[in-house]
Amino acid sequence: MYYGTGNPGTWNPSQRPGKNRWSMTIMARNPETGEAKWVYQMTPHDGWDYDGVNEMVLANVDDHGKTVPALVHFDRNGFSYVMNRETGAPIAIHKYDPSVNWATGIDPKTNEPIVDPAKMTSDGKDVKDICPASQGDKDEQPVSYDPQTKLFYAPLNHLCMSYQAFNVKYKSGFPFVGAIVNMIPGPGGYRGRFIAYNPVTGKTVWQKHDMFQDWGGAMTTGGGLAFYGTLKGMFRAVDVKTGKILYQFKTPSGIIGNPITYMHDGKQYVAILSGVGGWAAIGMADNLHKSSAGLGAVGLNATLTDYTNLGGTLMVFALPSKVASAD
Question: Tell me: the pLDDT tens digits for 274-295?
């Protein structure tokens, strides 16, 4: 059984010295006994809120000509991890967004990130231009693995931030944060990406940029399609090999849901929930207007109201035998 753990509290790392084991960690446990078989900490002494709770995908990968049972994880911290899921040994660790700058790379001896001291947060210090932001290069939106292309299709964020930590005391029932965060679009001025990616080589085969975070999940099919939605509410089918948009439909609200497909009476359908919300759209969902509210998410997506509305609609599409190209 594989799962990840979240960030330590507070968000002020000066209040919790050390590596803060075992936060920000991939856990592998025997489901019958609960005993840990192996653990791997991705972001020791987290100073940026890079939770390690994103999904763990089990796939067989090629490791120097040998097929290995692997666990693949796209972490909030901007690194993709390919682990031998039996032993916990790293097979490949790469930045899946080149803008990542809180760490320069991974130490080959310790397998720990090489943190840039200039991007490390601490009590009373306002650190600018940290990439990614606290929402991470990917948050709750799940990736999809296509066994035909052997690529992962990932809806992503592309954000940077300023982060000012401060001393905070725990009080039951109140937020235990200890940081002021302001988030901005990443380099290039866009906030979202959808990519076809090989985590073993670290190569992005193709990518599409979106104005806002691609906060909904991805789904690939045996017919060579990848489906995903945008915060503006566009639901798309793209070619898994090229990224070309084959079909798109403007749904009533922004999309943070995960597409599914099913058969009924011999016909294939694709369904998606259209209804904006979550951390990415907390300003709209909770009627917040102060830019620093929602830990910076309100200011980041203040213009989202110009493009979509609140809602909650289940959209179901019949999949034709051949999807026509979109203009």
Answer: 999 999 999 999 999 999 999 9
| Whole-Å CA distances, 121 to 45, 105, 114, 275, 294 | 10, 18, 15, 35, 19
CB 82 within 8 A of CB 92: yes
| Phi, psi (rounded to 5 degrees) for 326 | -85, 145
- 125 three-state secondary structure: coil
Check pLDDT > 60 for residue 317.
yes
Instruction: Give dist(CA 243, CA 204) in Å, integer.
Output: 12
pTM greater than 0.90: yes
Q: What share of the chain is helix, strand, coil (3-state, %, to 5)?
A: 5, 40, 50
Q: What are phi and psi of 87, to 5 degrees?
A: -110, -20
Return d(Cα 139, Cα 40) in angstroms, integer: 19
Which strand ranges, in their side-by-side order, compose the sheet holding 313-318? 260-264, 267-274, 313-318
Please give the angle made by the CA atoms of 109, 110 and 113, to the nearest 5 degrees. 115
User: Is 265 part of the annotated catalytic residue set?
Assistant: no
Which amino acid, 165?
A: A
Give me the catalytic one of 49, 51, 139, 146: 49
Burial string for 213-230 (b: 16+ CB within 10 Å, else e) reads: bbbbbbbbbeebbbbbbb
Residue 324 has pLDDT above 60, yes or no: no
Structure tokens belonging to residue 299: 């200011």
Domains located in the chain, CATH noted: 2-318 (2.140.10.10)
